[in-house]
Amino acid sequence: MNPIYQYFQYTLSFIKRHYKIISISLLSVLIIGFGILILFLGGYLGPSYSDEEILNFQNDEASEIFSEDGELLGKFFHENRTATHFDELPKVLIDALVATEDSRYYEHEGVDSRSVLRVLFKSVLLGNKSSGGGSTITQQLAKNMFGRKDYGIFSMLINKSGEIKTAQQLERLYSKNEILSLYLNTIPFGESIYGIETASQRFFNKHVSNLKIEEAAILIGMLKANTYYNPRLYPEHALKRRNVVLHQMMKYEYIKKDQYDSLTKLPLELDYANKENDGIADYFLSKVKIKAQSIITEYNLSNDTHYDLEADGLKIHTTLNAKLQRYALYGLEKQLKEKQQELYQQYKAEKYKKELEHLVNTRFDQLNVENKETKQEYFTWEGNEVEMLSVKDSIKKELLLLHAGYLGIHPQTGEVKAYVGGIDFQSHPYDQVMAKRQLASTFKPILYAVGLENGFYPCKYIRNEIDENEEGWKPSNYSKTTGGMYSMAAALAMSLNIPTVRIYNNVPFKALEEVWDNLQFESKLEDFPSTALGTTDASIWELSQAYMAFANGGFYVEPIMITEITAADGTVLYTSPELPKSHRVIQESTSLQMTAMLEKVMNEGTGGSMKNRFGVTLPLAGKTGTSQNYIDAWFATYNPNLVIITRVGAATNQVHFSSGRNGSGSTLALPITAYSLQKAQKDPELKSTFIPFDSLPNYLSNTLDCEDYKEGTDVEMFFKNIFKTKSKEEKQLRKEKRKEKRQKRKEKRGN
User: Fold this and answer.
1) How far apart are CA 334 and CA 322, in angstroms?
2) Nearest-CA neighbor of 366 among 403, 392, 348, 405?
3) Fewer Cβ atoms within 10 A, N terminus or C terminus of the chain?
4) Is residue 167 within 8 Å of 136, Cβ to Cβ?
């Protein structure tokens, strides 16, 4: 007998004998299945939320920081999201979304029955993941709002059921357009960004309202898999997916075939802008965040509110000028690119090469590690590079890097207009604007200001000679020359050290210390003659306060970086005071005379290359500075509306240039400012802010009307005129005069 037939007969006999049991079992399964289906479709299997919870739902929204000229500088966030309203969403974006994700969106009330049944039987019961998600846009919104929980093997069933119920609530509580807006604000796009506005800014550097149809199709295409279809990482995938979206738009008659044909032929074009990693003001933003958090904390305590700086979509308006910031970045990069190569060349020479190797070995021994090679990413001005480096090679690269800081600040208001804290925030976050280094000759104007208030005046002549009977430390000029007498103004213009120390020795130290403290310097000023030459450490930030006082009539002005903070709904949480906090530190007449003398520095002295070499003709006063052994180069300059301080140096004082040709303040730091001001000078808007200095008032109008140099005191000159030298001696004297003139020219090119 056929075995199959036997099996059939046996089965039929079994069913007859157990008919009732089998019938009851099948009926039970059908009832249970039908019950599960009812519960599933009714949303009773999953988590539920009250209407109030849904209405009060709020996405985390990044706070945005803007420059004074309205440019987005960056964001503070838990989730990087910027909310957008429906009326800001272009029709092509909505059409692409509906055509691709939910073609019957306007017909259902949150749940598409056909899709749900397909998901239930194919995806949930049969485990066929390729059958599609089946969720409507509203269900996807429910998932994005409240997430999914783990229920083991029943996770899909339970979560989908909960999303059905929540979707039905959403349709009841919100309009179709509101749901679309909520959905597009919740969706993730990878790269830690959320929401369509943030994605539009990231990939196309434009507001969502300005998206073209092909750009909208790219972003909607990413919803299927935001990494796989990321247009930056996988442009080919993104292009294919874009064309699928466009095909869906044609299929559902949102575009015509000829549009589809032309759009699918377009290449992929991005304008990628990651303002979180590649912003123009990262160092500045790190300071703004600290200050903003302090302001918000104080506001919350005072008003019993709970604003979150990283979640509530605050708008933070700052003082930074985006144009000037870019010019500062340009100047710093242009100068350091060139000088970095010069430093590399210097340390290839045998003498300096040995010094560097000794320093590298010392640092390596301190680490107590093996000199293994690993793949490392490191900064270069041509872009970050990755290669196999040993520990010693890595140390050497870091030691040889030149670092710099640039601060631009309004002397009347204290508003920070430009802030470059270093060469690259991601790899070198240490802020050079706040780093303390020896001030060198940029300290001299502070001393000279105290001198003006204690018996000195710009035309007072000061001996440029060292007394032979003086013991201990003795100053020397940059040019190594001595002799004659220089006016106070000329001594500052040429940055002469010997006359400067003479001023220091003839003013009360207490008076100098008082001005120093009133300017809010943190380091203690020591009463040593070498202090006159700037051996005290201070930061760019601190030094700016002194030069602000010269520019604004003698006041310390507290710097500000934030002008206003508003909540997402427009509520003003903070507005900066109309008048900055300030107090007088020097007399107005002192500030006016200091400005006149520091203008002389720029026109005739060590700052002369600003005009002569770089062609910057803006009205400026300023001072260069070079610390011992060319370890740090400084340049401070100002106008009635802007103070700029720059400093350049390696991370350690053991690495530096060997001569003033590359390492002095006038050759290393000044050009950074000069390059930035070349740009500002060509910018009509910025150029207009560089107003001329006021003329000296009548009582000070002749304060600089004197010769820079005299050969000796008035008494000495009197006797020389009476007792004429013989012919041979006259010739020798003329020869010495010529020598002095040559020396004078050299001194003008001093530090």
Assistant:
1) 18
2) 392
3) N
4) yes
* pTM greater than 0.90: no
HSE (CB half, 13 Å, CA atoms) of 633?
Answer: 33
CA 685 to mean position of chain CA atoms: 23
The contacts of residue 100 (CB under 8 Å, 6+ apart) are 220, 221, 223, 244, 245, 248, 249
Beta strands in 362-401 (DSSP E): 373-378, 385-390
Contact between 635 and 620 under an 8 Å Cβ cutoff? The reply is: no
Q: Residue 582's pLDDT is what?
A: 95
The position carrying tokens 């009926």 is: 27
Residue type at position 708: D
Higher pLDDT, 47 or 306: 306
Contact 587, 312 (CB under 8 A): no
Phi, psi of 724 (to 5 degrees): -65, 140
In 3D space, the residue among 601, 634, 574 whose CA is nearest the CA of residue 437 turns out to be 634
466 contacts 497 by C-beta, under 8 angstroms = no
| CA distance linking residue 434 with residue 519, whole number of Å | 15
Q: Which residue has the tokens 């600089």?
A: 704
Predicted pLDDT at 68: 97
What is the residue whose two structure tokens read 């089998």? 22
* Residue whose C-alpha is closest to residue 549's, from 506, 518, 585: 585
Task: Give the pLDDT mean for 409-418.
Answer: 98
Helices and strands (DSSP H and E) totals, the chain = 28, 21
What are the pLDDT digits (tens) for 308-363? 998 899 999 999 999 999 999 999 999 999 999 999 999 999 999 999 999 999 99
The number of residues making up the chain comes to 751
CA distance 93 to 99: 10
Q: Token pair for residue 468?
A: 């032979």
CB 441 within 8 A of CB 665: yes
Q: Which two tokens stand for residue 531?
A: 């202090």
Q: What is the pLDDT of residue 186?
A: 87
Residue 437, strand partner residues: 538
pLDDT of res. 728: 47
Average pLDDT, the chain: 87
Q: Which residues pair with 643 in a beta bridge?
A: 409, 638
The CA R_g of the chain, rounded to the nearest whole Å, is 37
196 is written with which tokens?
């369509």
**What pLDDT is recorded for position 721?**
47
Contact 339, 426 (CB under 8 A): no
CB burial readout 563-588, b (16+ within 10 A) else e? bebbbbeeeebbebeeebebeebbee
For residue 590 the two structure tokens come to 């002192």
Phi-psi region of 253 (alpha: psi -120 to 50; beta: other; left: phi over 0): left
How much is the pLDDT for 537?
A: 97
pLDDT over 90 (residue 598): yes
Q: 3-class SS at 160? A: helix
502 with 463: CB under 8 angstroms? yes
Q: How far apart are CA 247 and CA 668, in angstroms?
A: 59
**CB distance 533 to 504 below 8 Å:** no
- Please give the pLDDT value at position 11: 67
What DSSP letter does each residue of 455-523 carry, written as one string?
A: T--TT-EEE----TT--S-----TT----SEEEHHHHHHTT-HHHHHHHHHTS-HHHHHHHHHHTT--S
What percentage of the chain's residues is helix, strand, coil (to nearest 5)?
50, 15, 35
- pLDDT tens digits along 97-113: 999 999 889 988 877 76
